[in-house]
Amino acid sequence: MARRKQIYEGKAKILFEGPEPGTLIQYFKDDATAFNNQKRAVLEGKGVLNNRISEFIMLGLERIGVPTHFIRRLNMREQLIRHVEIIPLEVVVRNVAAGSIAKRLGLEEGSALPRSVIEFYYKNDALGDPMVAEEHITAFNWASPQEIDDMMALALRINDFLAGLFAGVGIRLVDFKVEFGRQYEGDMVRLVVADEISPDSCRLWDMESGDIMDKDRFRKDLGGVTEAYREVARRLGVLRDVE
Ligand code: C5P
């Protein structure tokens, strides 16, 4: 196999130079990290599942007119994506109180929020991804006011799509994180969904049992992490050709 140039290695993924200009190959590792890298493990098969689940979600978003970086899946662990300029923000949408918002605001885990809430976090490992306000985003020029509006509108459309998708298979979408990138086409710039959307970046609870089906199983030492991801994949029907 020809050696490929590695562009970037993150906690759960590696990016390689793609076959054509403007493309990259996104490789899904089995590594899991939490609490800003303080907790680590290798969960065999996680990368394969997240590759499939993220492909399925990105294709669904494209179908409803939300642009993404996804081009096509290449194999069990890799997908071809568009090379975009990543906006250094994590956009979190919450429907139900859990995780950091429950702690920060003293809310009961599992209580429905009065409406979907959008939060921005500055992507910076050394700082532990601090929450930031629009004021910081525009003052430090991480994104323009128009881009903030566009990200919020897209994040809500993604939330509606994902909440419906998961409800259809008996799963409650508690919250999720999404990242955006700028895709340059001549003079035009458009915002596209980047990175991945998978049980690593969502909170997913079984509607009947309340069982946790996402990365909180790893964060909270509940065990059965890949089994839960596999169940999410199975319910979404993304494993049909490999089962
Ligand atoms: O920890 P917190 O409650 O703020 O997380 C909100 C949502 O964002 C969760 O679904 C979590 O998995 C996701 N998240 C993420 N990457 C981070 C921080 C949070 O995918 N660095």
Write structural notes for this entry.
The chain is α+β, with helices and mostly antiparallel strands and 243 residues long. The protein folds into 2 domains: 6-82, Phosphorylase Kinase, domain 1 (2-Layer Sandwich), CATH 3.30.200; 85-224, 2-Layer Sandwich (D-amino Acid Aminotransferase, Chain A, domain 1). It contains 6 helices and 14 strands. The protein has helices at residues 46-63, 99-105, 134-139, 145-167, 216-219, 225-236; strands at 6-9, 13-17, 23-28, 31-34, 39-42, 70-73, 78-82, 85-86, 89-96, 112-122, 131-132, 171-185, 188-194, 202-206. The strands form 3 sheets. Strands 8, 9, 10, 11, 12, 13 and 14 form a 7-stranded antiparallel sheet that branches. Strands 1-2-3-7-6 form a 5-stranded antiparallel sheet. Strands 4-5 form a two-stranded antiparallel sheet. α1 (46-63) runs parallel beside α6 (225-236). The model has no long low-confidence stretch (mean pLDDT 97). Cytidine-5'-monophosphate (C5P) is lined by residues 90, 92, 99-101, 129, 175-177, 201-203, 215.
Poorly predicted runs: none
Number of helical stretches of at least 4 residues: 6
User: Describe the biggest sheet?
Assistant: 7 strands, antiparallel
Total tally of structural domains = 2
Question: Distance between termini?
Answer: 28 Å
Overall shape: globular
Cα-atom radius of gyration = 17 Å
- How many strand units? 14
Fold-level CATH name of the largest domain: D-amino Acid Aminotransferase, Chain A, domain 1
CATH 2nd-level architecture of the largest domain = 2-Layer Sandwich
Distinct small molecules: cytidine-5'-monophosphate
Mean pLDDT: 97
Structure classification: alpha+beta
CATH class placement of the largest domain? Alpha Beta
> Would you list the SSEs in sequence order as H and E?
EEEEEHEEEEHEEHHEEEHH
Oligomer: single chain
The portion of residues forming beta strands comes to 25-35%
User: Going by CATH, what is the homologous superfamily of the largest domain?
Assistant: ATP-grasp fold, B domain
